[in-house]
UniProtKB/TrEMBL annotation:
NCBIfam families xrefs: pgl (TIGR01198)
Organism the protein comes from: Rhodotorula mucilaginosa (Yeast)
Reaction catalysis annotation: 6-phospho-D-glucono-1,5-lactone + H2O = 6-phospho-D-gluconate + H(+)
CDD domains: 6PGL
Domain Glucosamine/galactosamine-6-phosphate isomerase: 19-238
InterPro entries in the record: 6-phosphogluconolactonase_DevB, 6PGL, Glc/Gal-6P_isomerase, NagB/RpiA_transferase-like
EC number: 3.1.1.31
A GO molecular-function descriptor: 6-phosphogluconolactonase activity
Protein name per Swiss-Prot or TrEMBL: 6-phosphogluconolactonase
Gene: SOL1
Keyword entries, A-Z: Hydrolase
Coiled-coil residue windows: none
Family note: Belongs to the glucosamine/galactosamine-6-phosphate isomerase family. 6-phosphogluconolactonase subfamily.
A biological process term (GO) from this entry: pentose-phosphate shunt
Amino acid sequence: MSAPPSKEATAPVLFGFPTTDNLSQALATFVLKAQDEALKKQPTFRIAISGGSLPKVLGKDLIGRDGVPWDKWEVFFADERVVPLDHEDSNFRLNDEHLFSHVPIPRQNIHVIDTSKLDDPEAVADDYEKQLVASFVGSSSIAFPRFDLVLLGIGPDGHTCSLFPGHALLDEMDGWVAWLNDSPKPPPTRITLTYPVLNHSLRVAFVSTGEGKQEIMKEVLDNPNPKEGLPSSRVRPISPGRVFFFSDDAALK
Ligand code: 6PG
């Protein structure tokens, strides 16, 4: 009889690359491996993607790959700014520019915020949570969704998603999607996946590039503190989930 799976988080894995282009190639391969593993056991590959510098690095190599079953992708946003989809701050728009507009992911498989509720961020978060429930719950009831892959960035203050240092949302342990209107990084009004969702994912990959990330990467890698540390350090999925860091040499010097 095999041992029951451990609930303990496993150690993060760091991948370093000489250039951002090398990182983009390896990231595309990593994403497609996660996709293949997901599709062996289920009909869709469920991925959550952030904004910032990530979509450009992600799209660079991925959009040229052959034979990708894009119709089996189901995409959510790890966080989203509560703005119209064509607004320059929209994470949908950014990902559309660098990825979605180049590949045939069915539009209904890209889960965007309900823009008819922009003046009520709580309603936007509730609606987004309902979209997650509809995708993940199916016929059985589950406590939290389990993404096949979540792709995140790290801000200079250690934030990730829209989970900022010292913010009350760091303690949100029940909801799947939360909202805030006091983000220190503009724009102020956003929705974000919560820690329980991030920490039930099968894979979380942080992507950080460029010398502007040197200090924060040193802090995150040298002083991990999953309980009380920086928001990005608190992402430690329970087994069999794993955290990966994809960084270029400039970010790791
Ligand atoms: C957002 C992001 C945010 C981002 C980090 C890193 O929408 O603001 O999801 O969490 O990933 O701020 O951004 P950079 O990679 O651009 O530094």
